[in-house]
Amino acid sequence: MKWSADAEDAIRKVPFFVRKRVRARVEQEARTAGKKVVSLADMQATQRRYLSGMSRDVKGYRIDMCFGPNGCPNRAVPGDELYRRLEELLQSQDLLGFLRQRVRGDLKFHHEFRISLADCPNACSQPQIKDVGILGAVDVRLTEEPCTACGACVDVCREGVFELDGEGPPRLALARCVACGQCVKACPTGTLAADRTGFRVLLGGKLGRHPRLARELPGIYSADQVLQIVGDCLAFYKAHSRRGERFAELMTDAFFDDLTRRYGAAGGDPH
Ligand code: SF4
Ligand code: SF4
Ligand code: SF4
User: Residue 185 and residue 197: Cα distance in Å, rounded?
Assistant: First the structure.
C-alpha cells in the first residue's frame, strides 16, 4: 500500500520495536476504510488507538523470524518447523498469565519474552538483542573428494576461512567460520560438505535502559536441543522474575555455565 511522504516520515519516528506492527495496523485500517494511500491523519489516528490499547495486544511472548521463508537465497537452515514448535512451547507456558501476576500496572510489549529466529548468521531478525536468539548454521568439513582448486570457496567466504596455494585442497582457518554454509553450496566437487546442520543459540540480549548483547552457547544444536534449552530458560525466567524483569536482566553466569556444561558437549565446537 502507498504512503504519503509525511505519513512515511511519521512512521519512521515510531519506536522500531513497534513500528512494524503499527505500520501493519495503519494499512489494515486504511484498507478497511477503502483508501489506497495512507495519509498522515490516518497514520496518527491509528497510532493513537494502537498505543493506548497496547496492553490488550500483549500476548506474553513474541517470536521474530527473518525473511528466509520468503525465498532468501542465504538460508543456511530453514527454521520454519522450529518456529512452529517454539510457538507451541511458548503458548503452553501461559506467559501472559504469568506477566499479569508479576507486573504492576499495564503490560507493555517490552515485558514480553522475546525469541528471534534467523535462518543464517546474517541475523536479519536481530537475535543478538533478544532473550533467546537462534541462527541457522552449517558445520563445514573437508571430504575425500578431489579438489580442483577452482577457488569458488575462497571467493564466496566472507570470513577468509580458505587459503589455496595453487593446488587443492584449501587450508581452513575454521576459527573464523560463522557456519553460513555458502562454501558448501559453492563447491562444485563435493570437497566441502556439511558435517552437521542445526542452530547456534544466543542468550540474554536486550535493548532498553541497560542494553546488552546476547552471549552465544558454544556449538551447533539440533531443533530438539534448542527446544530443551529454551525450556530451561523459561523455567529459570519464571523462577526468578519477581516483577516481570526480562530473562536478559536475570540470566546469571552460573546459569549460562550450567547450560554450557549440560549442552555444550552435545553441541560441538564453538563458533
Ligand atoms: S537472516 Fe539470512 S536467511 Fe534470513 S533473511 Fe537474513 S540473509 Fe536471509
Ligand atoms: S560456512 Fe564458514 S567457511 Fe563456509 S563460507 Fe560460511 S563462514 Fe566461510
Ligand atoms: S574446495 Fe571446492 S570450491 Fe574450494 S577450491 Fe576445492 S573444489 Fe573449489
Answer: 13
